[in-house]
Design goal:
elongated; six-stranded parallel beta sheet; about 20% strand; about 40% helix; Rossmann fold
Length: about 290
C-alpha cells in the first residue's frame, strides 16, 4: 500500500514505538524505488518496500533494533540468490526509530507527493463512472466525479471529490494543469460539449469518452461542423479502455471497462510526466530544463 499522511498518523497513534525502514539507495533492479518506506512496530507494519525476502529481512532486523533499544541501523542487501530473490540489484536500507523530527519530515514529504499527484476528472456518476472512481481511488491521483445530478454522487470512496454543477464543461476550464478527463455522462450532447472543451486543453495527458465507433463518428462530425480544429481529434480516446488491451475483451461490464480505462489513464499520465521531466538537448548540445 502507499501510505498517506492519515495512514502515518493512525499507525503511529496505535504503535508509537516504531521504525521507519527506507530504501536509501537502489543499484540495479529493485522491487521499489529509492525513497520508498514502511513503518514497522513490534506487532504491526504499514506500507511496503517491495515485499518478499527483502522485506522479511528488514522487518526482522527492525524488530531487533526495537528490542535492543537501538535507534538506527543501515543494511546493505544484495537482491540475489543469497536471500532467495532474483531482482539482481542491491539496496541500502536505512532503519530509523521514530522521533518527532522524523515524523515531521515524513509528513512534509507525503504532503509534497500528494500535491504533485495528477488530477483525474470523471464526468458522469453512472455505473461506469462509479466503477472507474473505485478503480482509481487507491492509485496515485486526485479523483473528482462531476455530475449535474447531485443524487447520483453517492456511495463513492471517501478520497474521491464530488462536484454537482449545472455546467460540467466549465469545470474543464478551471481544472489544474495536466489534468486528465474521462467523459461518461448520461447524455451524448453533454458528452460532446465536455469533450470539445477537454480537447482545448493541450496540457491534458488523456481525454477519453465512453462509447462506440459510431459515437466517435458522430462526435467527429459534430466537432468539425462546430469549427473545431481537426488535428485535436487525434487526442480523443473513444472508446475508453481499448488502448490498454488493443484486441478488445468483448466484455462491457462497468468494472471491466473501468479496470482497462484505469490502466490506460495511468499510462497516458506517466507518458506526459516522463516527457515533461525529460531534458531537451539543443543542436549546440546544451541541455534545457535543468
Amino acid at each position: 500500500m502507499t501510505l498517506s499522511i492519515s495512514d502515518l498518523h493512525s499507525f503511529l497513534s496505535a504503535q508509537p514505538d516504531a521504525i521507519v525502514a527506507e530504501l536509501a539507495s537502489v543499484r540495479g533492479s529493485s522491487p521499489r524505488e529509492a525513497g520508498a518506506f514502511m513503518l514497522i512496530s513490534a506487532r504491526a507494519i504499514a506500507g511496503t518496500i517491495g515485499g518478499g525476502a527483502l522485506e522479511y529481512m528488514v522487518i526482522d532486523r527492525a524488530r531487533q533494533v526495537l528490542r535492543n533499544g537501538e535507534h538506527r541501523d543501515d543494511l546493505d542487501i544484495p537482491l540475489g540468490p543469497e536471500i532467495g530473490q532474483c531482482c539482481g540489484g542491491r539496496v541500502d536500507v536505512a532503519l530509523r526509530r521514530v522521533t518527532p523530527d522524523l515524523v515531521r519530515a515524513l509528513v512534509a514529504r507525503l504532503a509534497a507527493e500528494d500535491a504533485a499527484r495528477p488530477h483525474v476528472f470523471l464526468f458522469g456518476a453512472g455505473h461506469v463512472g462509479h466503477a472507474l472512481a473505485r478503480a482509481l481511488a487507491p492509485l496515485p491521483a486526485h479523483v473528482h466525479v462531476v455530475d449535474t445530478r447531485p443524487g447520483e454522487l453517492t456511495d463513492l470512496p471517501d478520497n474521491v471529490e464530488t462536484l454537482a454543477v449545472p455546467m460540467p464543461e466549465a469545470v474543464v476550464r478551471s481544472a489544474p494543469e495536466g489534468s486528465a478527463y474521462v467523459i461518461l455522462t448520461h447524455d451524448h450532447a453533454l458528452d460532446f460539449l465536455i469533450g470539445a472543451e477537454a480537447l482545448q486543453r493541450l496540457d491534458a495527458p488523456y481525454v477519453g469518452m465512453v462509447g462506440s465507433k459510431t459515437k466517435r463518428a458522430r462526435f467527429r462530425s459534430w466537432y468539425l461542423d462546430a469549427g473545431y480544429p481537426a488535428d485535436r481529434l487525434e487526442r480523443l480516446v473513444l472508446p475508453i479502455g481499448g488502448r490498454a488491451f488493443p484486441g478488445g475483451l468483448g466484455d462491457k461490464r462497468p468494472e471491466v471497462i473501468a479496470a482497462l480505462a484505469a490502466a490506460e489513464i495511468l499510462v497516458h499520465i506517466g507518458g506526459r510526466e516522463a516527457s515533461v521531466a525529460r531534458p531537451v538537448t539543443t543542436q549546440s548540445g546544451a541541455v534545457v530544463g535543468h
